Amino acid sequence: MIFEKSVSELHELLVQKEVSATELTNAYIERIEALDQDLQAYLTVLGKEAQAQASEIDRKIAQGADLGILEGIPMAMKDNMCTEGVRTSCASKMLDEFYPPYNATVTARLKDVGSILLGKLNMDEFAMGSSTENSAYMKTRNPWDLACVPGGSSGGAAVSVAADLAAFSLGSDTGGSIRQPAAFCGVVGLKPTYGAVSRFGLIAYASSLDQIGPLTKTVRDNALVMNAIAGYDALDSTSVRYDKPDYTKFLVNDIKGLKVGIPKEYFGEGIDPDVAKGIQASIETLSALGAEIRECSLPHTEYAIPAYYLIATAEASSNLARYDGVRYGYRAEAEDVLGMFRKTRAAGFGQEVKRRIMLGTYALSSGYYDAYYLKAQKVRTLIKQDFDKAFETYDVLLAPTAPTPAFKFGEKSANPLTMYLSDITTVPINLAGIPAISLPAGFVNGLPIGMQLMGKAFNEGTLYRVAYTFEQNTNYHTLKPNLSKEVLARGSR
């Protein structure tokens, strides 16, 4: 099927005129119409707009113009990235009728290279969650088992790629929100170095942690998308000037002599034994391919979760203070201004968002700032120093992306602390600001598991090299979920 092909394969078909951009776009739209009522990955589908974009590209092809690698390729975006004139809701009632007057930088860059936007994807409200159960609109289902969550908060983004509802997608990652759903859904997801991809137009959850990154079917596709979206942006004060490479140049099937560290803390309590066994098999594969594997230590890992949830919620409390019913977004009716503030925020935010605002406000309050927020920032520095020290010896670090495979709906939502612990292997990377990639590395009880590779800041290239070599020597990325009508009907009951 055409929609199962990678970006590189689709580009070749377009160049050879074996398929038109319109035919390709229509194939994805038809698949969305057939499957998404069960999977619920999309909040907004831009069928007519996508077809109009495709027609323009077909005219360009007919005139003999060269075609860029992402030109005419249908994609989708998490619904917290601004799209001019297209609803950007953050899966929240608070922004139910928000139509941005401008594009996020990543939106503009993909538009400039000719990618076709199919629509906006479901997520945990304001990116706060690990299961996409916190959306104000619907619960996205995992295509490998519709009774299971797809991960979060970029659950819709991962499902759109895993179920072939888009050729690639963009997600955002604050504490694992690209990598964990990528692992749960069996796709490739990259969290870039902080500052490598512009955050302008990304509706903020926690500004010092958020990063935009690609979710794709293959490592090559991931590198191609990074080529398009990465690089300095004057509109983003946290954007970094650096020598952006062509990431595809790192896609070589050779890791002989590379030093891979295995942090022992990432294989401790809370890691499913079957997941650990699957990742150990992947480690053995890399060793057989010539990598030098040794155990290492990141001693402050145990403090990552409490530090993260203090810092992230404090920043969320500050960022979400703007949603007061005055300037834009949802407004509740009340007799006076204070009543309007209270009712707007009570009705506009969901339970998890309100929980995190309260935690963050408490951590920043007088008398508690030094005891909680400031101490968490000091721990963040120690965690970063752990990584810096490890990278003096190792080229990359390797660990499970998530401690378990995808879990059932409702299994963890009643206990927020249990849900928060599902990010135990991903949040340290955001605290340190380094890049990490998740790629398919096996199955446990029919559900995908992910292997996470971590690298030095702005060294995505080495991650791509290791990931590409692993991918070329395994077949996990080629396996697809069964999405027959019978399976969907059974899973939707």
Please provide a written account of the structure.
The chain has 493 residues and is α/β, with parallel strands linked by helices. It contains 16 helices and eleven strands. The protein has helices spanning 7-15, 21-39, 47-62, 105-112, 155-162, 179-185, 219-229, 273-288, 304-319, 337-348, 351-364, 369-390, 416-420, 427-432, 460-472, 485-491, and strands at 42-45, 74-78, 116-121, 168-173, 188-191, 211-216, 259-263, 292-296, 396-400, 436-444, 447-454. An eleven-stranded mixed β-sheet has the order 1-3-2-4-6-5-10-11-9-7-8, sandwiched between helices. The longest helix has 22 residues, at 369-390. The two termini are 27 Å apart. The mean pLDDT is 96.
Q: Give the topology string: H per helix, E per strand.
A: HHEHEHEHEHEEHEHEHHHHEHHEEHH
Question: Which spans have pLDDT < 50 for at least 5 consecutive residues?
Answer: none
Portion in helices: 25-40%
Q: What is the total tally of β strands?
A: 11
Give a quick account of the main beta sheet: strands, pairing sense, barrel closure: 11 strands, mixed
Quaternary class: single chain
Alpha-carbon distance between the two ends: 27 Å
DSSP strand content: 5-15%
Number of helices: 16
Radius of gyration: 21 Å
Give the overall average pLDDT.
Answer: 96
The strand order across the widest sheet is 1-3-2-4-6-5-10-11-9-7-8
